[in-house]
Design a protein that fits this description.
- Residues 1-20 form the signal peptide.
- Belongs to the protein disulfide isomerase family.
- This is Disulfide-isomerase-like.
- Residues 461-495 form a coiled coil.
- By secondary structure, the protein is of the alpha/beta class.
- It has 16 helices and 19 strands.
- A five-stranded mixed β-sheet has the order 1-3-2-4-5, covered by helices on one side. A five-stranded mixed β-sheet has the order 10-12-11-13-14, with helices on one face. A five-stranded mixed β-sheet has the order 15-17-16-18-19.
- Helix 10 links the parallel strand 11 and strand 12.
- Helix 5 (126-137) packs antiparallel against helix 6 (168-179) and helix 10 packs across helix 12 (337-348).
- It binds 2-acetamido-2-deoxy-beta-D-glucopyranose (4 copies).
- The site of one 2-acetamido-2-deoxy-beta-D-glucopyranose has 7 residues, from helix 12.
């Protein structure tokens, strides 16, 4: 019996081998075609429906999408749609020629037309791709359903309640359904539904676990885009924590203004600040997406780097315009609801001041006793080895910072005659400071001459005499150490010379 089976298996293998061999296109055998510049034209001609994934195989996002893509290929085996991948890192010319400037991206090419592909939204799973294809090819009648089956679902269901099914509203609703393949869409005309949720017709309801989350009244001017914004915004909680799972949702949100709260979740004021952020979020829902970033989470390092936030600076709020990537810093010490709301409103009104890498160099910045540094002048002044520089890092909106200004003036005047000492200050909120400074602002840092790359943080009493003593002591210390180091270098040189002579 076993022998017979083996024989059959061998025969089968042979057949496949022969079949494959006789085909001039060996790659046609696989579920997903590998497309290159060389075979794109031919592949496009051969398949009436060609679904192409442009991706970078080494990127995390690329791998995730390509897994979903392969899953879809398996399910679509034998259908009219052929799936193909283009490695956008290798096929740069082809991707450019096809205007596929970002990846991963999925395009559906129909009837050999390379100019007008349909754009498939980036899928969460293989099911999203299938749903997208199905909805594209189908019609509203496919989503007319008995709501009772979905109402109690854990997942959000988008319900369109329409008076007439041939109305324009229904088309707008259905075109939104195509773009959001990860969500359940249902059309119903059942008046009981509407009575139950206390609405009238021509309304879109978001329902989760039989509870109405939000309702949207369709208007003659309502566009597909507006409806998509409404659905995607209310699908999310008012404040979304940034994590590996939510990142894609946040970054693909049609809301292009993001408010980010950087905070330590374990801090004592977390609950209070989070609640203020949450209440502010409710008032800007369709305009600003509110995101929480836990600075204690090491995986958030890249977001923090992007926004140039260091963990000791938390809690703080940044607003970013996702269109031009300009960021704005909330200029306040206290993060209460009113302050957050005012900041968001001033941003929307175009009145917020962007955060710069460096402020412009102020006129006559070195004419006053206290030198006013900015990002561009910081290193040149502080790291000058011929001067001892005492620098106040301050936040202009902080009471504690401002309280130090008179003392700093006093200190500068007291040291007016000493040319080798510079008293300076810098606005740490408006200038990027490229130093690993510990602690928080205001911060008093000394860069002693001869050892200017060394930063000595002052933690003593905030009194003139103490500051003066500190400067002198540190200058003396730096001088002594330099002498010692020079002596050691000298000894070493002498020893080296001696060794050379002896050779
Ligand atoms: C593919 O076809 C386009 C015209 O549609 C042509 O410009 C291009 O050179 C062709 N590419 C290859 C590799 O044959
Ligand atoms: C790419 O974009 C350019 C400029 O908009 C256009 O001329 C060209 O036809 C596009 N190519 C494709 C394949 O869509
Ligand atoms: C965001 O940036 C775009 C492009 O610069 C600009 O048109 C838009 O007004 C900005 N939005 C806000 C709220 O400043
Ligand atoms: C420091 O002083 C030395 C010797 O006078 C001079 O050559 C050097 O250019 C000075 N450095 C700076 C940054 O001013």
């Amino acid at each position: 019996m076993r022998r017979v089976l083996l024989l059959v298996a061998t025969a089968f293998c042979l057949c496949v081998f022969v079949a494959a061999d006789t085909q001039d296109e060996r790659h046609e055998e696989s579920l997903v075609l590998q497309v290159t510049k060389g075979n794109f034209n031919r592949t496009l001609r051969q398949h009436k429906q060609l679904l192409v994934l442009f991706y970078a195989p080494l990127s995390g996002e690329g791998r995730r999408v390509s897994e979903a893509f392969e899953g879809a290929a398996a399910e679509l085996q034998g259908s009219e749609v052929k799936l193909a991948v283009i490695d956008a890192t290798k096929e740069k010319d082809l991707a450019k020629d096809l205007n596929a400037t970002t990846h991963p991206a999925i395009r559906l090419y129909l009837a050999g037309d390379k100019y007008n592909p349909a754009h498939c939204p980036l899928p969460q799973s293989s099911a999203s791709i299938i749903t997208w294809l199905t909805r594209r090819a189908g019609s509203v009648s496919d989503i007319i359903a008995d709501l009772s089956l979905l109402e109690a679902s854990e997942e959000l269901t988008v319900v369109g309640f329409f008076e007439k099914l041939d109305h324009e509203y229904v088309q707008v609703f259905y075109s939104a359904a195509i773009e959001l393949p990860d969500m359940n869409f249902v059309v119903t005309q059942n008046p009981e539904v509407i009575t139950k949720y206390g609405r009238t017709h021509n309304v879109v309801l978001l329902i989760k676990k039989s509870k109405l989350i939000q309702a949207y009244k369709m208007m003659p001017q309502t566009s597909k885009e507006e409806l998509i914004i409404f659905i995607t915004v209310y699908q999310m909680d008012p404040v979304t924590e940034y994590t590996g799972e939510t990142a894609a949702q946040i970054l693909s949100s049609p809301v292009l203004n993001h408010a980010l709260l950087f905070i330590k979740k374990s801090s004592a004021d977390f609950v209070e600040i989070h609640s203020a952020f949450d209440s502010a979020a409710l008032e800007f829902r369709l305009q600003i997406l509110f995101v929480l970033v836990n600075v204690e989470e090491s995986r958030n390092g890249r977001v923090m780097e992007y926004f140039q936030v260091r963990d000791f600076e938390a809690p703080l709020i940044r607003l970013v315009n996702m269109t031009d990537h300009v960021t704005y810093h909330l200029p306040s010490d206290s993060l209460d609801k009113e302050t957050i709301k005012r900041f968001c409103q001033s941003y929307l009104d175009g009145n917020a001041k962007p955060k710069m890498r460096s402020e412009p160099i102020p006129k006559e910045w070195d004419k006053k006793p206290v030198k006013e540094l900015v990002g561009m002048t910081l290193e040149k002044v502080a790291f000058n080895p011929n001067k001892t520089v005492f620098l106040l890092f301050y936040l202009p909106y902080s009471q504690e910072s401002r309280a130090l200004f008179p003392l700093w003036e006093e200190l500068a005047k007291a040291l007016k005659e000493r040319e080798n000492v510079v008293i300076a200050r810098i606005d740490a909120s408006a200038n990027d400071i490229d130093m690993s400074m510990q602690g928080s602002y205001p911060s008093l840092c000394l860069f002693p001459a001869l050892y200017s790359e060394r930063v000595v943080v002052y933690t003593g009493k905030r009194k003139l005499t103490d500051l003066l003593t500190f400067i002198d002591e540190e200058m003396e210390k730096a001088k002594k150490e330099r002498v010692k180091e020079d002596e050691e270098r000298m000894k070493y040189m002498e020893a080296a010379e001696k060794a050379k002579d002896e050779l």
